[in-house]
Amino acid sequence: MQTQQEQALERLREEIESVVGRKMKTPKDFDFLAEQIFEKIHETVSPTTLKRIWGYLSEPSTPRLFTLDLLAQFVGYKDWDAFCHQDSSPVIPASTPHKHSFLSWSTISLIAVTIVILLLSGIIIRSSLKSSDAKKGSDQLVSDYFLKRGAHFDKPQDYLELFGIHDLDFFWGREIPNYPGLYIWGPEYGNPTWGNKGDSAAMMPTISVHWSLENVSQEQIARRNSDFYYQALHRNEIRLTFMKDLVYPGYVFLGAYRLSKEESDSTHNVWERVQDDLYLHDLNQLYKYRN
Fold it and tell me: Distance between CA atoms of 257 and 55, rounded to whole angstroms?
């Protein structure tokens, strides 16, 4: 008989597979999942660790709480404990008679009203954004979708929509649809975990990133920073950067960045600005900056 922990772990595996849209059956599946986890929460879980959790490797292993917390965060929970408590009380028991599985008229009406409200809210928000952009004038967006360095945005959805990204599953490192290798980056200036240091007076010509966390050994910190460095080398991406809390409590556009091979190493990544302003109708020209 499975223990409660084993049952919760099985549910977690199923939910993760549902989120990424594939079963974990081959080494490529686990490589894919590791990359998806990093994309969404900017944390690294190695493919080997994932293989152990799925039982793909025969060697016995008990997942660390830190790893379980990261996997729970990947599917939308605060941590492993929150996932276990949430999953322990399903809304609809498996034994519910079939006739009760259909929605009641009152539920359908409530859903319909909610959809109408959401549609109206979207129209109001878009109108508000257009009005806000008009007021910001040359400090924000100018004609023909020309995005200037120093443009301010109150929240991530305000700038993500410029690139055709309308959901907010995560916004720290979103790849732009139809532009492989071009990412939207939303770092926080001076973040205690990631560092994100640089010359704020010069609007961050370089951004130095070093991952660290309290109660984590120096060996683990070194291993994670090494993983981030080699992953950045492999992906060879261009980051369109909107930094939080640099000059005011929102986000400011800093330009396009690439990894500096000369200044980066396995202990930290240094991102250098290669272009200030951006013409949104011609993103292909950014590929010329890739290493």
Answer: 40
Do the beta carbons of residue 287 and residue 238 sit within 8 Å?
A: yes
CB 187 within 8 A of CB 194: yes
Which single residue is written with the structure tokens 């443009």? 151
The structure tokens 């926080």 sit at: 188
Instruction: Return the amino acid letter for 244.
Output: K
The pTM is what? Answer: 0.57
DSSP 239-261: EEEEEETSSSSSEEEEEEEEE-T
The yes-or-no verdict on residue 141 having pLDDT over 80 is: no
Per-residue pLDDT averaged across 228-253, rounded? 93
Residue 122 has pLDDT above 80, yes or no: no
Q: Do 206 and 219 contact (CB within 8 A), yes or no?
A: no
Report the alpha-carbon distance of residue 58 to residue 248 in Å, rounded: 52
Across 22-30, average pLDDT: 91
Q: How many CB atoms lie within 10 A of CB 194?
A: 20
Residue 248 has pLDDT above 90, yes or no: no
